[in-house]
Amino acid sequence: MSKYIAVAGKGGVGKTTFTALLLRQMVRREKGTSILAVDADPNANLGEALGLEVTSTISELLEQSKDPKAIPQGMPKNVFIEYKLQQSLVESKDIDLLVMGGPQGAGCYCYPNDILRKHLENIGENYDFVAVDSEAGLEHISRRTIPRIEVMFVISDSSARGIRSAGRVHELIKGLKSAVQTIYLIVTKTSEGSMKSLEEEIQRTGLTVIGDIPLDPLVVEYDLAGKPLFDLPDDAVSVQAVEAILNRAGIFN
Ligand SMILES: Nc1ncnc2c1ncn2[C@@H]1O[C@H](COP(=O)(O)OP(=O)(O)OP(=O)(O)O)[C@@H](O)[C@H]1O
Ligand SMILES: [Mg+2]
């Protein structure tokens, strides 16, 4: 059975950075593991962090299915949508990527969303490991487009406000009644003394801290230059921190 990992948290805290490094470690540590990355953020940029080129998002493809003229004559709509969904998969040597895309236009999407849910469920089972870079509102998780989650990492930056926000994300997840098995907190962009200062705020969230990712000048440098974070060296502090977190969380077992 495939293992589903999701990454959540408010905007700009480091979700995509962590997801990219999680995938980096997975590819390097577990050779031969089949991996699906899902970018569920409307402002999708996981592809860039992984160095993969994304040509179309699922939202764009579903939008096309609303136009009857776009569907070849004689082809049932569900077959057309499934075909489009298959087309949206970005395949690479180590990782395949699905990009959900932005909010969909007006009109009812219940039907395509239903198909999308079934598609994700089916496609997900073809992989050993599925990692989801979530959007802040967790919409895909609440709508159950993502069928289940074994481990959810809630990300916060190293500010009291960030931790409180992670606490609210935690409440949101608890209220979802969706199958989230384990939830961990990760604090990012930390410097010396950050964790000590944030201790009380963290305790109030009820979340278990699985580790922190220090502010890494190499992450800043790679982002500035538009270089994929996937290519960060093994000795980068962020890479080492993520490796330690994944070991602690038992992700490689
Ligand atoms: N450990 C780190 N060290 C230095 N900079 C970092 C670190 N983690 C993230 N950043 C920087 O913080 C910014 C936001 O990171 P990222 O894009 O991963 O956040 P996000 O939560 O995915 O944001 P969004 O909600 O916009 O998708 C980026 O400029 C990134 O380079
Ligand atoms: Mg992001």
Automatic annotation (TrEMBL):
A Pfam family of this chain: CbiA
Signal peptide: none
Cross-referenced PROSITE patterns: TOPRIM (PS50880)
GO cellular component: cytoplasmic side of plasma membrane; cytosol
Toprim domain boundaries: 1-76
Name assigned to this protein: CO dehydrogenase maturation factor
One function term, GO molecular function aspect: ATP hydrolysis activity
Biological source species: Desulfosporosinus meridiei (strain ATCC BAA-275 / DSM 13257 / KCTC 12902 / NCIMB 13706 / S10)
A biological process term (GO) from this entry: negative regulation of cell division
